[in-house]
Structure formats: structure tokens, C-alpha cells
User: Fold these one by one.
Assistant:
Number 1:
Amino acid sequence: PVIYAITPTFARPVQKAELTRLAQTFLHVSNFHWIVVEDAPQKTALVSRFLETSGLIYTHLSVATPPNYKLGRNDPNWKKPRGVEQRNAALRWLRENLKLSNKGVVYFADDDNTYSVKLFHEMEKIQRVGVWPVGLVGGLMIEKPICDNVTNKVMGFNAAWKPDRPFPLDMAGFAINLELLLKHTDAWFSYDVQGGYQESEILRQIVTKDQLEPLADCCTKVYVWHTRTEPPQLNVEQMLIKKGKRSNAGIEV
Ligand code: UGA
Ligand code: MN
């Protein structure tokens, strides 16, 4: 199968660093197609140039999050969901451009996480929806499906954060057979759900809990980490900008 990784991304000082880390992991994955969706009204020059020279097979899209759903500068990040508009644009692209004869797996790969190449090998085994542990998320070292090693079935989840979610998983903790997403043409992410329910929203429309396929050695291995990049301190840069100067004049960072 082709692995279609959908990455919402938005302009900020660390954006190119994030995309570079991802691209250099993805270059180690064969049969890989990166769908990068900018949270912007138009594709930016930075991301366009970045993708052109990345060496990856990619599709570049852009769609801005509507202003009423965009986080304010001082809003805590749990206030509004992120990536809804962008992931839906990617789902639309898949449905408009691929056929049921295209064999693939779809993964929602946020731009700030850390991915092991081993994760993508696991995805090749997926029939419907594969699930696995995610490191450093939900207030825990590891959030994971509980896998019965006799039946190799998902018996439950160890999540501590909103454990009553229908699928208490992070976005990084599952991937979906392309065919399922092409057949369920009305499955989308939504603004009309509680905070933290995006994963449950898409999954409940296409799969049941007993159909989940535990991967990564019956969910005993961590191949993806929900890392979050600290925003850099740019106080000196701000002072330069006030004086009409900048450290990176003519240089892309
Ligand atoms: C958690 C999950 O890991 C996300 O997959 C989920 O979308 C999010 O919660 C949620 O509940 O909406 P978290 O680390 O808090 O994630 O989210 P971010 O990494 O800040 O954002 C997820 C993705 O959306 C990233 O790829 C980010 O670049 C993108 N994003 C973020 C935008 O496209 N626009 C924004 O304004 C902010
Ligand atoms: Mn994140």
C-alpha cells in the first residue's frame, strides 16, 4: 500500500524546522505520499519551496481555518480544535483523486510529533484501522490500547485524559485503510464535538472498537511520540524589528 500522511501545518518561527524533521524521517519510508495542508488562504512560498526540494512525493494544499475557530494568541490550546479544516481538505482530495483500486493507508501526521520509521512498517499490515501506543501524551508516559496477547484484540485503553471518549486515542495513534475512507464519503472531522473528540469523531464513523487492529507488538512498543516544540524566545529579534532590522534579512529560517 501507499502510505498517505496528512499533515496540517501553519506559519510560525519553528515551521521549517518541524517540516525538516518530518521530511527527513519520511525519506526513509518507501511508497510514501505526503499531503501537506497549510492553514493559510494561499500556499506560502516557504512551504512550496520546501516541498519542491524535499525529494518526497507530495500534494500541497491550503485552506485557512475560519477566524471564529482559530486560537487567539493567548488562548490555551485546548480551547479550539486544530487541523479540522486541513484534514478535511485532505480527505476531500483523497476522495476526488483516488479510486477503490488504489491500495493505501491514511495517517494523520501532525507536524510537531516525532515518528520512527518502524511505525510506517507497522502500517503496511492494516486491514481496517491499526492502533498503537503513543508516547508522552495525555498526561502519561504512554497512552495505549490494551491488547490481549492471546487473541491479539483491543480489550480497552489505558487513557487517563477523558477516558470516556469512544476512542480514547491521540491522532498519532491510529491509521486507516484508504478504502474505508473512500467508501465512507460522509466521514469528516467536525467543529461540533467536545475538545479532544476529533479522533473519536472520525473513527466512530468508519469502525467499531472490536475491529481495531493492535500493532507494534500487541501495543508494547512506542514508535511515535507526541512531542511539542517550545516556541523560541525572540525578544532580541523583536527589538531589532522595531529598529527596522532583522538577524535573518534575506535568509529563510
Ligand atoms: C492534539 C492532537 O495530537 C492533535 O492531533 C489534535 O488536532 C489536537 O489535539 C486537537 O484536539 O485539535 P496538539 O499537540 O495539542 O494535539 O495540537 P497541535 O500539534 O498544536 O496541532 C495539530 C496540528 O494542527 C499540527 O500539525 C499543527 O501544525 C496544525 N495547526 C495547529 C494548524 O494547522 N493551525 C493552527 O492554528 C494550529
Ligand atoms: Mn501536537
Note: Residues 29 and 117 are 7 Å apart (CA to CA).
Number 2:
Amino acid sequence: MRFEDRTVFITGAGSGIGRATALRVAEDGGFVVATDVDETGGTETVEAVEAIGGEAVFHELDVTDAEAFDAVVETAIGEHGLDAIVNNAGIGHSPADTEDVTEETFERVVDVNVRGVWNGCRAALPHFRARGDGAIVNVGSLASFLGLPKQSVYSLTKGAVMNFTRAIAAEAGRDGVRANAVCPGFVETSLGNMHFESMSNPEKAKAQAEKQYPLGRFAEPEEIADAIAFLLSEEASFITGHGLVVDGGYSVS
Ligand code: NAI
């Protein structure tokens, strides 16, 4: 019960990696503040947590809205306390050469993936600093370290998430705050599948991509959630500013 008496705030908790993280934290005794722009998904996550005997509450939240973010964090602190935040919400874009990405796509992806993480850290940090304790996990990607072809804007945002995480770790470590990133390879979620959807034969393309993973398969969302939970927990008490790559060996092969 690593998270007993601890409250973990999760963005993008209505689906994929965010939902798996909510379930992992709840299994280990933590109270989950599940947030998402998608009310249906977020509510389903709370129901899934309750179905395993855990405790969670849902707040609708668009991470790009700083004022709303501050308000939901304030409410969470008032009602449940706040020990950790997982800035997981993120979006991708269809594969495209850099010059073919529209300004609208650029702005939207940067807004959610970069501003959203900034908003989350900015909202939680004063509370964490004041109590001298807090853990932040930002969800990066393999694209935090590798330049992915036809994913240059996504790569730009995930590189930014990684270096922002390092800066927070350096800045707030003396205040008792740890900040880390989890950087997954492909995970079969709605976001992950978007990468293949525009291809002529998505199933064939996926099968070929899977072969490039030394472990011979893609990750399950639960395997990413395990890495996030580890970095949130006391087991990682001396780890900060780290980008934990969870990619079945893809980046070293
Ligand atoms: P997903 O699409 O299953 O879940 C993303 C969630 O974020 C959804 O519930 C969605 O409603 C929510 N969301 C989107 N925009 C939002 C906003 N403005 N405010 C609040 N919530 C918002 O995708 P997945 O795969 O679970 O993605 C989670 C994170 O993992 C993202 O940051 C993504 O970039 C990252 N990631 C995913 C990989 C994959 O292959 N699936 C690989 C590497 C990183």
C-alpha cells in the first residue's frame, strides 16, 4: 500500500495511460483525483477505481486553462490534500512532414502538451514547496529523446516536457519536491493508434513496427502506469530530474 494516506492528482485520467495510473495508485491505497476534458471517460475511470475498492473523485478539467487548473488543484487540496501530480494529458498529430503541419495543429499540440504540463506544475508547486514535500511525474515520450520523423511538432513538445522536468527538479529539489518524466514507446491507446490510422494498411504497419521492439511487442498502459507509480513513490525518494524510458528496448536497438 505505497500510496496509503496519499492523494495523487492525474490529468488525462479518462483513458489509456492516465486511467491505468489511476487504477495502479488506487490499488496501492492512494486517493485519486482524476481529471480530464472528457467527462464520460473520467467518470468511467472513477467507476473502475471504485469497482476495485479504491477511492477517487472526478473533476472536468482542460489542462490548457490555467485558471481552471488552479481552481481544481485548490479544491483538491481543500478536500483531500495533495501529495503528487501526474501531468499525463497529451495529444498527438497525424504523421506529416514538418512543412505540412498547419499552424492550428502546432498551436493545439503545443498548448496541450507544453502549456498543460506547465499549468499543472505551476498549480501544484506552491503547495508542495510550502509543505516541503511533493512528487511530480510528467509524461514525456520516446520523442523526448529521439527525433521522430513526421512527428516533429509532437517531438518538439515532448523534448520540452523533458527539459522542463529537469529544470523543475533543479529548482525545487531543495524544497523537497521531486520531478521526473516517464517516456514511453508505443502504447496501444487512442493516441498511439492515431499514428497508424492514416496509413494504407494500419494493421500491417503496426505489425512491422512491433517487430522493431526487442521485447517483440508494444507496451500495455499498465506497464507505463507501473513506471509512473514507481517514480511517485518513496521507492524513488532519491530520483529526480530523470526521464525513465519505458520502450521495450526500442531506443537501444
Ligand atoms: P489517450 O488518448 O488514451 O489519453 C489521453 C487523455 O488525455 C484522454 O482521456 C483525453 O481526453 C485527455 N486529454 C486530451 N486533451 C486534454 C486536455 N486539453 N485537457 C485534459 N485532458 C485532455 O492517450 P495515452 O496514450 O494514454 O496518452 C497519455 C500520455 O502518454 C500523453 O501525454 C501521450 O503523449 C503520452 N504517450 C503516449 C504514447 C502512446 O503510444 N500511446 C507514447 C508516448 C507517450
Note: The first strand starts at residue 7 and ends at 10.
